[in-house]
Amino acid sequence: MSLPAWSYSSAKLFETCPRKYEAERVTKEVKFTDNEATLYGTAFHLAAEEYIRDDKPIPDMFRFAEPALKRLKNLTGEKYCEIKFGITKRDGRLEACDFYADDVWYRGIADLLIVDGDTARIIDYKTSKSSKYADTRQLALMAACVFLKFPEVKYVKAGLLFVVCNSFIKENYTFDRRFEIFSVLNPILARREVAYNTGVFNANPNGLCRKYCEVLSCPHNGRHT
Q1: Sheet holding 104-116, edge to edge
Q2: Which residues touch 90 (CB under 8 Å, ≥6 apart)?
Q3: What residues have CB less than 8 Å from 60, skipping those under 6 apart?
């Protein structure tokens, strides 16, 4: 079984439950379907992108976020909305590559990137109601991508902007520590590689399995057939 490129969301899904990862990303027995929360998030991301990039008025339903988006819009620097990043491994080195390159190893998309000289800002919009379980690993991955794609950048100021609960989780990254995130994720990626090589994606049961998991073929699912 060939090992595909990974992303933050796919690594997080595998970390949560390899069996669910297999059902969604390998066998495709579980099809992704939008719900109210995902549709809301998609709509907000589009509104933010069009406001910052095209100066399009923010829809009334998202007007509460206009002050925060206006502050971002007024920052100096070159702005990139929904910018796609690719990283490949060549001769043991990590290099920037096209998002769709044949040898792409990692793929990521930054909601907003602002490059101003040797400093860059990365913003990831979140529409969940709480920032309690914020995971900044996504920001670290984006910072690594920026350092590779924009070699002039030496400092990255990044943040998760929780627009609904008005919370901003900040992290700073420097060029000399740009790849530390991969040492944190390597155990997850190594287990993922083993799963692909062996075809064994073990379940990681938790309290949500019986009632809420969509993988009906898993024995831990209370609704399994």
Answers
A1: 93-97, 78-90, 104-116, 119-126, 155-162, 167-174
A2: 103
A3: none
Domain annotation covers residue 9: no
Count the domains in the chain.
Answer: 1
Q: Check residue 33 and give its pLDDT.
A: 83
CATH number of the structural domain spanning residue 88: 3.90.320.10
- Specify which residues 123 forms β-bridges with: 112, 159
Identify the band that residue 95 occupies on the pLDDT scale cut at 50, 70 and 90.
Answer: very high
Domain with 162 in it:
34-178
Separation between Cα atoms, residue 177 and residue 186, nearest integer Å: 16
The span from the CA of 111 to the CA of 108, in Å, is: 10
User: In the prediction, which pLDDT does 218 show?
Assistant: 86
Task: State yes or no: pLDDT of 155 exceeds 60.
Answer: yes
Residue 149 lies inside a defined structural domain of this protein: yes
Q: From start to end of the chain, where are the E strands? A: 78-90, 93-97, 104-116, 119-126, 155-162, 167-174
Q: Is 57 part of any domain?
A: yes
Structure tokens at 194: 């083993």
- What is the distance between the alpha carbons of residues 98 and 109, in angstroms, rounded to a whole number? 12
Tens of pLDDT along 186-200?
Answer: 999 999 999 999 999
Average pLDDT of 61-72?
96
222 found inside a domain: no
Token code pair at residue 218: 């898993």
pLDDT greater than 90 at residue 67 = yes
Residue 181 backbone dihedrals phi, psi, to 5 degrees: -60, -30
